[in-house]
Backbone:
């Protein structure tokens, strides 16, 4: 997970991964100790221009380009002073935020440990833990301009179950966003194919000026993931943000 002001343009010398020639395709054979699925994963990684660009430009994951591309389209990072990164590991989104908003306070949380990044603070904790939200709020030390969520539940292989579990995280992130966002703020969250559930989408449209779904080019076409972006927070009744 884990540019410039108005639209988050390229930093000096960055090559747009979409313009990178893929070159000869690398084929990976199934070795004695390598399953067919792991061989496919490795082959996909070796032939992914976003993976190559992330390695070359120092991003911790190819997911950094998803945030770059969405910011290029919607410009939500411009002027942000406080940003929350839910599901922060390995830190690619926080790297982008720190790059685009060098003076911003960035706080993140993940079940996994995140290697330190200048300008960001991370908590290793389940976001659904009882004290997680209060600990994030204490680190923020003021209203947030943006709440980012790249959280996804561990997949079970059952599409309906995976969708329900991930949408529960999206909803939890939304309630947290309603608690911490400043007026005009943005909530951006990963969802799965099918988009945001009807009731949650209705609530978002009531409390944000615009709500849209987007699948950035860096999101693999075969993936069921997409993102919902809610901009222009109007405020919400914290006892009933629905």
Residues:
């Amino acid at each position: 997970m884990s540019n410039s002001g108005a639209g988050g343009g390229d930093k000096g010398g960055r090559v747009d991964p979409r313009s990178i020639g893929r070159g000869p395709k690398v084929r990976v054979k199934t070795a004695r100790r390598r399953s067919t699925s792991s061989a496919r994963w490795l082959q996909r990684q070796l032939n992914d221009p976003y993976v190559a660009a992330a390695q070359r430009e120092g991003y911790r994951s190819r997911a950094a380009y998803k945030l770059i591309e969405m910011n290029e389209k919607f410009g939500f990072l411009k002027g942000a002073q406080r940003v929350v990164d839910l599901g922060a590991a390995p830190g690619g989104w926080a790297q982008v935020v720190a790059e685009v908003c060098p003076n911003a306070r960035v706080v993140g949380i993940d079940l996994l440990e995140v290697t330190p990044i200048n300008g960001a603070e991370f908590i290793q904790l389940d976001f659904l833990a009882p004290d997680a939200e209060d600990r994030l709020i204490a680190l923020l030390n003021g209203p947030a301009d943006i709440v980012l969520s790249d959280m996804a539940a561990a997949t079970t292989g059952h599409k309906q179950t995976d969708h329900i579990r991930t949408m529960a995280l999206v909803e939890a992130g939304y309630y947290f966003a309603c608690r911490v966002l400043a007026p005009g703020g943005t909530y951006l969250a990963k969802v799965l194919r099918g988009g945001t559930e009807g009731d949650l989408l209705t609530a978002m449209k009531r409390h944000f000026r615009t709500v849209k779904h987007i699948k950035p080019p860096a999101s693999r076409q075969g993936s069921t993931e997409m993102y919902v972006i809610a901009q222009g927070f109007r405020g919400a009744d914290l006892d009933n943000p629905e």
Summary: The helical segments are 36-46, 49-57, 64-74, 92-100, 132-140, 159-180, 198-207. Residues 1-13, 26-30 have pLDDT under 50 and may be disordered. DSSP finds seven helices and seven strands in the chain. Residues 159-180 form the longest helix (22 residues).
